[in-house]
Amino acid sequence: MTREILLRDVIDDDLPVFFAQQLDADANRMAAFTAKDPADRAAFTAHWATIRGDDTVTIRTILVDGQVAGHVLRFDEAGQPEVSYWLGKDYWGQGVATGALSAFLGQQQTRPLYARAARDNRASIRVLEKCGFTIVGEDKGFSNARGVEVEEVILSIPCPSPVGEGRR
Ligand SMILES: CC(C)(COP(=O)(O)OP(=O)(O)OC[C@H]1O[C@@H](n2cnc3c(N)ncnc32)[C@H](O)[C@@H]1OP(=O)(O)O)[C@@H](O)C(=O)NCCC(=O)NCCS
After folding, report:
1. Atom 23 in ligand 1: which residue has the minimum CA distance?
2. pLDDT digits (tens, 9 = 90+) for 61-70
3. Nearest protein CA to atom 47 of ligand 1, as residue
């Protein structure tokens, strides 16, 4: 059965769902670079107010068959445009992140576009690779979710080649 994956603007009613998704311990461990205390509702509310009010950030709610499955966003990190995403566990392993990110990339024409993932977050790296990203670098940073420094990879979708390039 094919599921309908749609993106739409975030509405206030999505926030309790995103908060519940943020509480998931497995998701936090997987993503690694997460909120200091995922259960801190005031910090969550303040963070979402900030990013929803920031013109340089674009966030879309991911709907699967009309239900709020998660979110995908574009933001600037040290002057570079990056994407990220988070899905509720009920939606994992069904191609939802791949479908949602590829739809989002169709709406976000900025290139190059970057993404980061913990080196051991195979699911996220695979989602990015399926959407055209390749690994272009590495970094490491302190993971709030794991309480240790964690290695991460940096991925990018390059600018499109000029017309005709590659045909010689
Ligand atoms: C990472 C995440 C977005 C993946 O979403 P998803 O909808 O399950 O991904 P998809 O179903 O589109 O799967 C894409 C690919 O990853 C693979 N994959 C999915 N889960 C995997 C896992 N746990 N381990 C290894 N590969 C996995 C799938 O098999 C698929 O590859 P394939 O087509 O070659 O078989 C989701 O697990 C999530 O939200 N996790 C918590 C937050 C997070 O890690 N966000 C990313 C921060 S960088």
Report:
1. 123
2. 999 999 999 9
3. 31
